[in-house]
Amino acid sequence: MPRTRQNEQASGKPPSLDYDIANRLFFRLYQASNLMHKQGTRYVAEFGTTTQQWAVIGALAHPSVIDRGMTVKALVEFLGVSRQNLAILLNRLEDRRWTERIKDREDGRSRRIRLTATGRSVWTAMQKPIEAFYTAALADFSPDERTILYRLLDRLKTGLATT
Amino acid sequence: MPRTRQNEQASGKPPSLDYDIANRLFFRLYQASNLMHKQGTRYVAEFGTTTQQWAVIGALAHPSVIDRGMTVKALVEFLGVSRQNLAILLNRLEDRRWTERIKDREDGRSRRIRLTATGRSVWTAMQKPIEAFYTAALADFSPDERTILYRLLDRLKTGLATT
DNA sequence: GTAATTATATCAATATATTGATATAATTAC
DNA sequence: GTAATTATATCAATATATTGATATAATTAC
After folding, report:
1. Band of pLDDT at residue B8, cut at 50, 70 and 90
2. Which residues form the domain of B25?
3. CA atom of B161 to C1′ atom of D23, Å
4. Mean pLDDT, to the nearest integer, of A15-31?
5. Predicted pLDDT of residue B10
6. What is the CATH number of the domain that holds B32?
7. Which residue in B has a C-alpha nearest to residue A139's C-alpha?
8. Region A71-76: what's the mean pLDDT?
């Protein structure tokens, strides 16, 4: 992954250009992701939240689900994380009274996760630092480039999901 | 981050298109990264290694450092991870006899991390599944698109590093 | 009505990844 | 020669993120 410079295999044969580009690409994905979490967390440090928690809150804040909440299953699928990992994340948010678990009236097995009033106002307060983060992180990109990158990443995500 | 659909702020004002695209972009970065680790680890499962360990081994396998190794400091900088995290990673690789720590003759404080002969042959054996992973993950991309994505990610990494 | 399936919760184990802090030895600055 | 700085190692605490497995209750299939 991190062999960003030309390399020779033990057999003495140089890697293909495809391999090299892919290698560089995925190494950048690794680095960018770590930095996103590191810097993103800095921008919302005043709330004591992490980028992952902000992802969950953001999902729950969407107008189409903000009143009814989302099932655990829907959140797992939407965020693309494991159930166990999400459970711990949710416990943390619930401990802080930002989210609540309510019974799903349509399916007795199910629980819906919903933002509390506190969670909503926290999310609102977070908008400014979140926007500041986005602005700073993408300062070097034109609007077109942002859209292109978004689309390419979307396709990469899909490719990885079906690998 | 995960508000991939049009949203209204609590104040009733829709987010700017910039905010929305950025939001989608970083959510995709999150998802793609998690999937990269998940699937990448699958492809090298036979070696019992993780994507992060493969990143370290790959760095150490480069011809410009394969004989002399790299200092811990250089590895920290190259990989962009914390010293503590790298230390644990290195301990794992060393426990497996894939890497070794040797004295740096030019600086008595320093240790150079180097691939062992075993580490080298493991790396060689890993090339096939690594290449298979790259091929599968990027099956939907043209060569041009791969290069474009790599470059955009590189710039994103740089932007995040200086945020 | 019963077996199979599903939603949730939880336990366990393992591996990142960050920040803060300390200690020792070697190198550099003055 | 001494203070300041640096490289490494390590301890601590916290938060992801994955896989495997189990249990209970509710729903679906037949």
Report:
1. very low
2. 17-161
3. 46
4. 94
5. 42
6. 1.10.10.10
7. B159
8. 97
The answer to whether A97 faces chain B, any CB pair under 8 Å, is no
A132 assigned to some structural domain: no
pLDDT of A9 > 50? The answer is no
Answer yes or no: do B161 and A64 touch at CB < 8 A.
no
Q: What is the dihedral of CA B96, B99, B101, B104, to 10 degrees?
A: 180
Q: Give the model's pLDDT for residue A17.
A: 83
Whether A145 is covered by a domain: the verdict is no
Q: What is the pLDDT of residue A6?
A: 42
Smallest Cα distance from A123 to chain B, Å: 9
User: What number is the ipTM of this complex?
Assistant: 0.93
Q: Which nucleotides of C are covered by protein (CB under 7 A)?
A: 6-13, 15-21, 25-27
Q: Do A21 and B160 touch (CB under 8 A)?
A: no
Residue A4 pLDDT greater than 50, yes or no = no
The one-letter amino acid at B90? L
Within a domain: B10: no
